[in-house]
Each structure stands twice: as C-alpha cells, then as structure tokens.
Inverse folding.
C-alpha cells in the first residue's frame, strides 16, 4: 500500500507551487503553514516575501490566492492582516484522505517510511547481574522500548543493546563464596521462576558480603578470584556464567511483567567488550587523544572542571592497570560504529550520567570513531519521584523494588476493571488479563506522557483514573468504539465524501490525518511524550464527537451512520497503533 500524503503536506505543496507561479522572482519559498484556530490552516510566509520583494503583502497574497488550483482541496481562503492566508479545506478532501488511510491493509494507516532511514543502535534497559531491579531501572526500559518501536515503524534499522552490569570486583566475592558453598545457588523447593532466582541471588550476595566484611582471609581469596576472572580462568568463568544465567531468569521475569520482549542476543554487557579494552587504550594513547597523568591514562577537556577549578579528566585506565567505565563505553562505541555499522548511537541513560557521556562522546570524536556521518545521542531521563516530590522510596527509606511497584499497579488496575466488569459482562479471566494490561499501561503511560528529561511523580491513584490524561482513558476510548461497532448490526463503516461534516467530525478527521506527521516528529527527536499527547488529544476529540454526533441514532440517514462508523473505526485503529508503539495494549472490552 502506497503512503498517503497528509492534508497539510498536500496543501503545503499547492501553496509553494502557487507562490512560485505568482512570484517567480521569489525563488523557492516556504509558505510557513501551520494549524490555526481561525481556520484549518494559516500560511504566514507571504509577509517575509513582501519585505524581500519590497511589495504590498496583501496584494501579493491576492496573487498567490489566484494562482491556487480551484476545487478539490481548498474550500475557502481568506487574506487577513498583513498578508496571512487562512485556509479552510473541503469536507470531501478530508474524508477522501482518511478513506485512503483506512484502505491501507498493511496496518500503517498510510504513514510513509522515512526517506533517510539508517541504522540506530539503542542502549537501554541496563540491569545489573546479581542485583535486584528497582524503580530506577523503570524509565530506561520503558522509554527505550517505545523509542525502538517508533523508530522501527518509521523504517529505521534498529539494533537493541542491553549493557548489563556483569563485570567487576564484586564477582570475585560472589564466585569465591560459591566455590566454598557449592549448593548456594540452588533454589529452595526446586523452583526456577524469576522470583526464586532473585531470592537466591539476594541470599548469596548478603551471605558473601557478611563473610567478605568479617573474614580477612576470605577477602584476600575474593580479590585473588577477581584476578582469576579477569585472566580468563576456566573454572572462575564457568561460575561467573552461572551468576549471569541466574540473573537472566530474573530479568526476563521482570520484563515479562512489563510486557516487554528482551532477547538474549541483544544482551551484551560490560564483559562483552573485555577483549577490546587494551586496544582501545592503545589507540587513544598512540593518537594523543589520551595522555598519562600520575600513572593513569586520561583524556582532558578545557570545559570540564571540578569545584576547585582544576580540569576533571575522563579516566580510561587506572593507575593500578584496571580499566574504568570509560574504556568499556569507548570500546562499545567502536564496536557499534565499526562492526554494527551504526549511523546513530542512542543511549537511554539517567540524566545524572550526562557529564560522563559528554566526555565519552567527545573522546570518540577526537579518536575519529564518531564523525559528521555518525552521531551519538544521550536520551537523558529524569528521576521517578514519590507523591511528596522526593525520590521514590519505601516507608523504610529503601529503594522500591520494580516488581513490587508493578504488582501494586496491576492490583489497583484490576480493582478498577472489576468495578466495571458487570456492565460489560467480563469473565474472571478477562478481568485478570485486562487488569494487567491496564496496570502496566498506566505505569508506562505516566512515564511516556512526560518529557523524558523531566522528573515525574509516581502516583498510582492518578495513573489508573478513568478520566484525565491517563492510559486508562485512552483504553476505554478504544473499548467504547469496539462496543459501538459490535452494536452496529447490519450498518458497516463506509466513507461518504459527499456528506457535509459537522464541526466535531471535521475536528476529529483533521486530527486523525496528523498521525504520520506526529510520528515523524517523534522519531526524529526521540520524543514519545509527543505521541502520548497526540493520542490523548485524539481521545478528547472523540469524546466531543460522541457528545455532538450520535453514531447509531435511528434518526440518522444510513450514509451518515456509515460515515460516522468509518470515523470511529479509523480512530480506533489509530489509537490501537499509537498505543502499541508506546508498548501499551488496548483491550477490546473494558
């Protein structure tokens, strides 16, 4: 199915052609088209042209208006102020364009693939081996998953990378403990689910930490074990793999609760770049990008200084010969650019790490791994706050476990779904399933409807509210349309371009037509909150439409019923597609 140009792009082209025809001396001119409250669109470009050509803007506007093709797209065009054009489109053009979108049987609703598609490697969802996932891991996973889906929909080739923390000195302690307590990783009762895996890992970590802090001989053996791990000792590596595998059982159980698909080949942790670290350091030193300072290999920056006014370096290799995080991150850049052929490196990482990544990216540029053709972007995100506006903690002041938070969201949502279940005849199985979709959707939408860089308050009462800017409101809008379609009987959705549209129908139709433009903007700027805002506005337009334009009224002519069914069905398909791109399900009945 060919893509369908939006009404705005078609009008933009007609106005640009008219500008060229009426004002050949102007060259290629932008009509500066935008949405308007006074009409459907307003074109503001003539004022600048008039200044350039030293002409009367209203006279130039009249010339441009006369050069526009008659009929078809434009119903009315008014010259206002100093040459502004207020443009109203024909109802026929609106319905015919929407009909072309509805005819797309590939599920894209006529949205085009972008012309300049490349390869983006996106680094997101980065838990740590042998450690519990907490609320701080939520945003990277949710934002990253949505951006992946949106970029892929626009036509970008996306490579997922989950840079898990699977290396470091703590593994010497854990592995040494396992050697001395061989049965430590066995699950009680033989269970193998994620909760059991994490419970086991927690127990082993706590027991080994107690021993490490109290027994100097064990501490010494643990440090020797770190050396063995870094040297590639076979027994040590085998036990390290057991910790990684056990952690993956747990990771997958959490991501399943989040309704996210994480594939093992995409999990390339810190250890995945070990073989590259020494070469990375050698290249940086030989090219003069990094220099020795007090025994460490460092990169310095004129604009990065500490509180004392001295330059703060990026430490690539420590004085003791160990590698810093920078060495791993720079090796990952090399791998992603040289081996994965990425045009864009996208890091969905906490804003508090912005300085680190700014220095890593600048170092990679100096080394030639990033260039005008290859860019690196940190999609920085803010902190999840409690209702009190402070970082989200338990009553005891502990960091909130991610699983506990998700379970509570599902429980709250299930109660909301159950409260309405009798009205729509939901079975217990449907209540449980929908409760999960509504609860997880509520958590994701609260995150994604906020600009990533901002902090946001985690308020479950607000998240599962049926009214306001929540995913539940959007899910109910979708389910309500499905209910109308089920009640339609013999009436079927069908576009009728010959009909005159009511104001609420026009507003809904014009908003539906913006879907592709919004997705292009969201994909270009990595801004899923703009898609969430579009979907909320769509549901709001739908509510106004319901209030003013009854769909199945016996007083309506058959073609009016069919055309309104067509509008609501296309609205449902747009809601469904948009919510899916945010990683949120839309149940058929709620």
């Amino acid at each position: 199915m060919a893509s369908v140009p939006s009404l705005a792009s078609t009008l933009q082209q007609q106005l640009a052609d008219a500008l060229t025809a009426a004002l050949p001396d102007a060259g290629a001119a932008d009509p500066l088209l935008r949405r308007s409250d006074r009409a459907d669109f307003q074109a503001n470009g003539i004022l600048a042209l008039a200044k350039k050509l030293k002409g009367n803007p209203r006279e130039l506007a009249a010339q441009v208006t006369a050069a526009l093709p008659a009929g078809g797209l434009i119903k009315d065009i008014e010259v206002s102020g100093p040459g502004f054009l207020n443009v109203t489109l024909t109802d026929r053009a609106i319905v015919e364009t929407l009909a072309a979108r509805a005819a797309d049987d590939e599920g894209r609703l006529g949205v085009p693939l972008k012309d300049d598609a490349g390869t983006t490697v996106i680094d997101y969802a980065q838990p740590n081996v042998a450690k519990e996932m907490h609320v701080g891991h939520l945003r990277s996973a949710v934002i990253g998953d949505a951006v992946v889906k949106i970029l892929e929909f626009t036509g970008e080739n996306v490579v997922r990378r989950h840079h898990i923390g699977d290396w470091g000195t703590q593994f010497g302690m854990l592995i040494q403990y396992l050697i001395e307590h061989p049965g430590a990783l066995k699950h009680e009762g033989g269970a193998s689910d994620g909760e059991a895996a994490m419970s086991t890992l927690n127990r082993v970590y706590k027991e080994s930490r107690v021993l490490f802090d109290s027994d100097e001989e064990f501490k010494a053996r643990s440090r020797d074990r770190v050396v063995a791990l870094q040297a590639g000792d076979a027994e040590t590596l085998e036990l390290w793999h057991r910790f990684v595998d056990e952690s993956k059982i747990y990771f997958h159980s959490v991501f399943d609760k989040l309704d996210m698909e994480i594939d093992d080949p995409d999990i390339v942790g810190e250890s995945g770049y070990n073989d590259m670290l020494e070469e990375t350091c050698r290249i940086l030193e030989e090219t003069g990008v990094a220099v020795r300072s007090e025994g460490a290999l460092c990169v310095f920056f004129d604009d990065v200084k500490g509180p004392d006014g001295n330059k703060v370096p990026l430490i690539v290799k420590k004085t003791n010969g160990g590698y810093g995080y920078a060495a791993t991150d720079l090796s990952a850049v090399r791998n992603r650019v040289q081996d994965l052929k990425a045009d864009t490196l996208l890091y969905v990482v906490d804003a508090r790490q912005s300085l680190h990544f700014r220095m890593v990216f600048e170092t990679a540029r100096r080394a030639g791994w990033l260039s005008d053709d290859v860019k690196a972007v940190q999609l920085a995100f803010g902190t999840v706050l409690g209702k009190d506006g402070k970082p989200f903690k338990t009553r005891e002041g502990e960091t909130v476990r991610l699983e506990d938070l998700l379970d509570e969201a599902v429980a709250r949502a299930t109660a909301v779904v159950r409260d309405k279940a009798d009205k729509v005849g939901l079975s217990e199985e449907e209540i449980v399933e929908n409760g999960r979709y509504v609860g997880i959707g509520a958590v994701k939408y609260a995150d994604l409807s906020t600009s990533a860089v901002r902090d946001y308050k985690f308020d479950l009462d607000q998240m599962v509210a049926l009214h306001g800017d929540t995913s539940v409101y959007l899910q109910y809008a979708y389910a309500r349309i499905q209910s109308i379609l089920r009640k339609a009987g013999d009436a079927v959705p069908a576009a009728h371009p010959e009909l005159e549209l009511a104001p609420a129908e026009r507003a809904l139709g014009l908003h539906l037509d913006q879907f592709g433009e919004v997705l292009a903007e969201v994909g270009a700027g990595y801004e899923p909150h703009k898609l969430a805002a579009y979907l909320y506005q769509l549901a709001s337009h739908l509510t106004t439409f319901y209030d003013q334009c009854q769909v199945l009224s016996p007083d309506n002519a058959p073609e009016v019923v069919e055309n309104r069914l067509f509008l609501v069905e296309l609205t449902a398909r747009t809601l469904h597609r948009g919510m899916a791109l945010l990683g949120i399900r839309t149940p058929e009945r709620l």
